[in-house]
Amino acid sequence: MSTNKTSGNSLIIAAVAALVGFGAVYATMRPHDNAASPSDTAENAPKAPEAAKSDAKGNHMAAFVTKKTPEALPDITFTDGNGKELKLSDFKGRTVLLNLWATWCAPCREEMPALNRLQQELGSDSFEVVALSLDRQGLEASKKFLDDVKATALKPYVDATAKQGTVLKLVGMPTTILINKNGLEIGRLAGPAEWDSADAKNLIEAAMK
User: Fold this and answer.
1) What pTM, to 2 d.p., does this model score?
2) Helical H runs in 34-133?
3) The CATH homologous superfamily of the domain defined by 42-208
4) Which of 19, 131, 142, 161 shows the smallest number of beta carbons within 10 Å?
5) For the chain, what are the domain ranges?
């Protein structure tokens, strides 16, 4: 009898712990735009495991998953800071680090300064960090976010429908995709990363050759 009671108590404790854990994840991932309806947007995608900043050997790109052969990407559409519609193919001819983020995403805020420093150092006619906001709050909220984190080197790009993340098969945000000058995906990393690290720059500079 005592054994059954103890077992029952253990099950109750486990169930409560699971509910608390779920609540913590939901609080981290839910969008602040309460007006947005649930749909097939990146906002409602499962949370990606937070990327390890480095492995045991200190490699900051340990979580980067390289394609065996560079693959074509969907030609997604979005707008720039002036509201002009762009396509991913408009960047063909240069290497692109496509970072998918949103204003409500805490890990996105964590890594944005590193992306800004990367653009300051490597940004050119041959390379650009394209930080694409998948945020239903639109351009102004995305601009404010970049201003708040002092990401002055990054141009504002926005998909206010938040649907392009689904097209790109994201599992969560941030996700960053390295694209070669032919518009093909070299690989991607799910979760925040030190994009201004030597490992990241070596990866990008190799892609630019």
Assistant:
1) 0.76
2) 106-122
3) Glutaredoxin (3.40.30.10)
4) 19
5) 42-208
